Amino acid sequence: MTTRMVHTLTYPADAEAVAAMLADPAFREEVCRSQKATSYDVDVTGGPGAGMTVRTEMSLPTDKVPSFARKIVGSTTTIVQSEDWGTATDADIHMEIPGKPGEITGTSVIAPPVDGATSRTVTLDITIRVPLVGGKIEDLVGKLLGSALRAEERVAAEYLAG
């Protein structure tokens, strides 16, 4: 079973500024802090744009996760996310929770600016391999990822305004 999540972020800037922001480790670190990560490591190589890779590893508390899921993920969880930018506007995304039965794969696509704003659509396929509750956990993960992307959008607005 797989759950698909699609989220579009809107940035108040042109595509070049958005690409530079996504290549800035300081921006990525601020996104981790905004998600209440207890620890994080960000590595950006190449870029911005084609050939850029971004690897983020962060530990997050699970105190807001329902108890049925916390039994599986524990009191904290580590997420490792990789983005491989094949072009200046398209990336493949792979996320894993080491030692846990699932994965998240997808894409990030930056669209041409409209009226001074650039959008980026993130499409993720969430697969959790746990009998009976896998689908429930996939839905929960989708909601958590949506919340994380909204937090990133808020951080981006402040970053781009500064």
How would you sum up this structure, described in words?
This protein has helices spanning 15-22, 25-34, 67-73, 134-161; strands at 3-11, 39-45, 53-61, 76-85, 90-96, 102-110, 118-128. By secondary structure, the protein is of the alpha+beta class. It has one domain (3-161): START domain (Alpha-D-Glucose-1,6-Bisphosphate, Chain A, domain 4, 2-Layer Sandwich), CATH 3.30.530. Helix 2 (25-34) crosses helix 4 (134-161).
Fold blueprint:
Blueprint lengths: L2 E9 L3 H8 L2 H10 L4 E7 L7 E9 L5 H7 L2 E10 L4 E7 L5 E9 L7 E11 L5 H28 L1
Antiparallel strand pairs: 1-7, 2-3, 3-4, 4-5, 5-6, 6-7
Helix pairs in contact: 2-4
